[in-house]
């Protein structure tokens, strides 16, 4: 809940305080009375509002950066605030109580999944340099050292700030404080136009190439030129009078190069003004703790590459028969059992004898259904004819406990397909049954996109273990059509019947959905656990084990192409490595190297914090990729998603499965996607010694850099 705007400044004479609830950088929750002052816009080109505040539980003074309800309804504005919060949290975790922490705003807390999201900071330290006319040469040297220290620290975190300007750099006479964190992007991301001339680099202004730390060196040089001369420099070349300012010329002449390749790095500039400082900065940042877990991942892949592959694709049904998605018995096309719906939406028998026109016959068949009589005791049900006429469907089963968010994730996967998400990969889609698909869109997709929280999937019956959700026809680049059917598995119920085993033997792909609240004992998830009434389960997801125990192994592994997905990843959007992957733009190609990198990162996160039990699918399945995704982009607030449900990376797990099944062709082959290609020095042991090689963030919206802090 956010505070209410008051017209009077904070203090004993103001109105009674409101309650403010927020998350502190450690992940814990804090609730306190708050008093707020007059509100101003931080920059006329940006949506953030700024006001002073006092947290009355301890009388702590701070500033609140927030979005109005109107701006908060804009996903791009929320993305800016998310970027700012994520950068502040990352710097807080990396720098802690070191001397370098003072170079950046100190975050007190944040509340982002609400109608009026906000951040709380310690009050700014110093004066914006936009208010300083000129600066003496001695101060310029200290200022340069401080600013380059900040850029080096950002580079060490894989970040580059695009919004350096006289309004976002503060100076207190001894130290710099760098604001404008909403302008931060990850090194290597495509540049997008951002900032004001001349402070944004020429490449940044044109949105050309990939972001890198030398972009910020240009901006810093322009700020320093203004402090030395009292005026702005040219936007695309070195200032003509640079030689008249000896200190600036000696330190930053190359920083004004029109292309990044001609500029020095932040570390090179820093070592000019403070020799050895760049090395001390690197030593001050905590060492990488992920290496042992990444090595364990590579070793697991090596063992999988040694295991024999299945001789031929698995199949649970005879040729010509398919699995009925409702009763889960096998059926085949029977032209004597076809029906169509009449004007009252009632089924009536279809007689094809009088339809001789091939085009009309095909059209009628597309809208027809077949009554399934495979299980006489099952309630009457009908199968769309296209489901029976394109060969064996590719069945995709979602696995996980009932609270894992499978329904939201699957809904957004299908919505991403119908939005054209498969087109960059040469795949096309059609509904198997237009009426059924329209109902799915009306009842599931549209409410979720409008910000409604979907009802929990109804519990399965005593003898049920799988629920059919939706099916689509997917056409690959070669023109081959295959039905794809999606199921929701109640994994803990699969022990009850032999039909469950028959179903599992026919499943083509599995998606194991990991709920971070159940898997990861991280403090930032405590509030979610309390809200949902759940606890960390160190033994893993019961549904995972039940499914894996019923599947046969080949060469020590289950050979069903699978994906593990860390769902609800927005809960951890500031936690490495989730922060890195969740902000990546949607994929336009399946890159095996990137898939493997994401798998390695998520494997490391789960192995380090959750334990090996949660990695059982990866350990048991020979072909299994790992993915980070969020179906909604944020958590609900009072029964709704404040800015609508914004999915992130929901299609990537399905793309991986399609590639493993050959619907998407890869240069290295489907095998390389899941288990990797053997390094040149890796010898597959056949007795004797072994040798192996163990080596190895919605993009920010367009806009302008942050302005002056008042």
Features:
710 residues; 6-stranded antiparallel beta sheet; 22 helices; 24 strands; elongated; disordered C terminus
Helix content: 25-40%
Counting DSSP E segments of at least 2 residues, the number of strands comes to 24
**Low-confidence regions:** 1-15, 459-463, 684-710
Mean pLDDT: 87
Tell me the fraction of residues in β-strands, as a range: 15-25%
**Rg for CA atoms:** 29 Å
Question: Overall 3D geometry?
Answer: elongated
Q: Label the structural class.
A: alpha+beta
User: Number of helical runs?
Assistant: 22
Biggest β-sheet description: 7 strands, mixed
- Write out the strand line-up for the largest beta sheet, numbering strands in chain order: 19-20-21-18-22-23-24
N-C termini distance: 25 Å
Short description, anyone?
With 710 residues, this protein is an alpha+beta fold. It is built from 22 helices and 24 strands.
